[in-house]
Structures are given as structure tokens and as C-alpha cells.
Amino acid sequence: MPSSFTDPNVLRRRLRGELRRVRGTSGLTQKDVASAMDWHPSKLARIETGTVRISINDLRALLNLYGVADDREISRLVALARNARRRSWWDGHRSVASTQLIAMLGYESSAAIIRDFEPVVVPGLLQTEDYARSIIAVQEGDRAEQNKIDALIDLRMERQEMFDRSDAPEMHFLLDESVLHRIVGSKAVMSRQTRRIREIAGRPNVTVHVVPYRSGFYPMCHTGYIIFQFTDPADGDILHVEYPLGELIFREAGSESSPDPRHISPARCLRIFEDVERFAIPMEFFTVG
């Protein structure tokens, strides 16, 4: 995994935001643009929502229409569009990785800060190979081909290379105590897994806290989630939520407008994570009975 990597999915989302911004500044509606560019009315909508990618020629034409005359600004947006078309490091795993996992990998690779809460199993970034093999074998079921299981394990181990990046993100892990007591694979596997967690927790950019049983029932204690924050504020925070039957991704834009205090959003889960972390025990002080 390269250093200083920003995943193309994140860059494409950034480009879409920039295009909406400059169009808004120009005062043109999507209908105005479609008419001026002689496009089908839906083309710009699909570009701005990410359904289709924009070519460099179309981008230059749009910027001209929007009145963007600053050469540096044009060069910046063209470079952004070009970088957004690059291949991701995980492209070779598309045959075995789900659409949700692919999206999560993009955010994980580009984040400046990662906060991961897990109520049931050890987070993927902390798993040993033996532990991961036991988990993935169960998740994939009895009919899963060994080649697919091996490929998913390789992918999980490759993700962990981010710990050795010169620009490794700030990472905070929050585990329910049950994660450390649940025997996955065997007692020997769990012993090695616990050692691995303690080793990673000793890194300067990593914290691992355990929420003890005595904490009782606390917000979101039944649901695993990951919050991704990025260096560029324009990228917004991303929330990845794990459910028994799948995964969902929430973006910050507009989510706080919901009047329902139970509404799931990156900002709400960030507050919950930080509140729970305050009464959790640092891994170096936690004893697994």
C-alpha cells in the first residue's frame, strides 16, 4: 500500500463536490448547463452524483461555462479528475470483495483518523492470520472455496500494511470485553491474538480501549461501526455500520438535519464513541481473565 495514498473513490467524491460548488457559484442550474452543453438533461445529474465519470475534455468545457478563468484552479481540478481515474491498490481483489468492502477499503486507505468499535470480534486491522482464517471461514459458509477464503485472508493482511506507512493514520479501537473472551479458533489462537492487540496498542498513533462488562448497556453496544475522518474537511466524515445482513455507509452531509435523536450519522456516532471511550479501560491496563 503506497504512502500518502488518497483512494480514487475519495477523489471522485471530492471532484463531485467541487463541480457542484463551482456550478452553484456560477448561478447555473443543471437544466441551464444541459442546454448550453447540448447534453441530455440527466448527464450532469449523473456526473454530479457519481453515476458516471467526467472526461477531461468535458471538465474543461464545464469550467469554461462556469466562468472559471484562474489557470491554477483549472489545473487543480484537472489534476483531481486525472487522479480520480487511477487504479486502487485493492483492484486485484474485486473478484472476492463485496461492493461494501471495496467502498470501505477506499475510505480506510485515505483516512487521517480511524475510529473502530467492535462488539463481537476483533477489528480486521488487528486480527492475526489464524484468527482471520477462523472468522472468514465461518462468514463464507461451508460451501466457500478455499481459494476465496485464502484471497480474503490475503486482503485482510494486506490492509494491515498501513501500520507501517510513514503517514499511517491515527487509529482508535474500542472493543467490548466480550470480544476478548470469545474463543475464536482455539485458546492458543486467542492467546496470540491478544498479544497482537497489545503490541499494536503500543504504537504511538494507536489506542485500544476495552469496554468492561460492568459498563452495562451503553449506546450502540450491539452494532459495530467505523468512523473515517480525512485531512481535507471538504471530504466530510464517513460512517461504516455493520449489520447482521450487511453493511451501510453514511455520509455527514445533511444527516444532522434529522429531528430524530436516534438518527445514525457520523457526528452522532463520533460523540458516542468518545463518550464510551472515557469509561473504557486502556488495553495495557486490562487483564483478560
Question: What report would you give on this structure?
Answer:
It contains 11 helices and 7 strands. The longest helix has 19 residues, at 8-26. Helix 2 packs across helix 3 (41-49). With 289 residues, it is α/β, with parallel strands linked by helices. It is 45% helix and 13% strand. It has 2 domains: 8-83, lambda repressor-like DNA-binding domains (434 Repressor (Amino-terminal Domain), Orthogonal Bundle); 96-126 and 161-285, Endonuclease Chain A (Endonuclease, Chain A), CATH 3.30.870.10. It holds the Pfam family HTH_31.
What is the SS-derived class? alpha/beta
Helix content: 40-55%
The counted number of beta strands is 7
Strand order of the biggest β-sheet: 6-5-4-1-2-3-7
At the fourth level of CATH, the homologous superfamily of the largest domain is Endonuclease Chain A
- Alpha-carbon distance between the termini? 37 Å
At the fold tier of CATH, the topology name of the largest domain is: Endonuclease, Chain A
| Proportion of beta-strand residues | 5-15%
Q: Provide the residue-averaged pLDDT.
A: 87
The CATH class label of the largest domain is: Alpha Beta
What is the number of helices? 11
CATH architecture of the largest domain: 2-Layer Sandwich
Largest sheet: 7 strands, mixed
Q: Poorly predicted ranges (pLDDT <50, ≥5 residues)? A: 254-261
The shape, in one word, is elongated
Order of helices and strands: HHHHHHEHHEHHEEEEHE
Number of domains: 2
Protein name: Helix-turn-helix domain-containing protein
Domain HTH cro/C1-type: 19-72
Organism: Cryptosporangium phraense
InterPro entries: Cro/C1-type_HTH, DUF5753, Lambda_DNA-bd_dom_sf
